[in-house]
Amino acid sequence: METQIVFQFGPFFRAYKDGRIERFFGRDIVPASTNTGTTTASTKDVLIEPKTRMSARIFIPNSLSPNQKLPLLVYFHGGAFLFGSPFCAEYHNFVSSLVAQANVVAVSIQYRLAPENPVPIAYEDSWAALKWVAAHAGVGHESWLTDYADFGRVFLGGDSAGATIAHNLALQAGLGEDLGEVKLSGICLIHPYFEREEGPDYVDKCWMYVCPTTSGLNDTRINPFVDSRLCMLGCDKVLICTAEKDDLRGKGLCYYETLKESRWVGEVEVFETEGEEHVFHLFKPDCDKAVALLNRVCSFLNQIS
């Protein structure tokens, strides 16, 4: 007899009553490679924390000149905290394109996934990874960071749950958590996964599943709209990318309005894609609207602080 399914997230994730987990996205691995003449970015994989196996993929543009210091993007993949990987084709290709076109260095983080590692572990891993990156502003062992990254121009970015992580880390930095010599210039939130109370009967089953200790949709880790500390966001600029047919679009626009109305003194912008759905750019990277989205993010990363 077939084992009972206890939780399913679209065609991407399935959990069974007997504890078995199936992930149908993000399991493939694109090998890391240096400049071969056929790629626009070189990559290497690093192990950040041996105990937890937290890792990352570092990207540099092949057009890099000697002694050139570039803006640094720390990127967090999406996947509802349940699936996804910086090593899979969709994220490898997207970050490679960003790095080549924007001429930046990027570190794409592999945080631990729920339900085996429930939230807030994804946030904790991501903060630890950001601290690891920031440590290279002094003396670090990863030469691609010490040689090429400008730690006065650091950006956080992510899509979906990864955008949620990027917001939370920027807030953590703004509340005084030490990042040493790093200057957090901005955050780019692509189709962010935020929630808010939508009436007494509304329940976000995914959030409750990935974060079983949550207080509910008033939890500021997923609901920035009730967070009185929002004005402490620790960066100067925010870009929010939304998609017209994305169920989360309204929350992204609400984030824009809430941040504007707070006492935060930075600049916030919205870039909307008409006629497209959630994270469409990962699956249709060559379409005109995905190219336009990529161009807008690259422009954001190249702003002069």
From TrEMBL:
Alpha/beta hydrolase fold-3 domain boundaries: 73-281
Superkingdom to which the source organism belongs: Eukaryota
Gene3D superfamilies linked: alpha/beta hydrolase
Record's protein name: Exostosin family protein
Annotated Pfam families: Abhydrolase_3 (PF07859)
InterPro entries, per the entry: AB_hydrolase_3 (IPR013094), AB_hydrolase_fold (IPR029058), Carboxylest/Gibb_receptor (IPR050466)
Family, as annotated: Belongs to the 'GDXG' lipolytic enzyme family.
GO molecular function: hydrolase activity
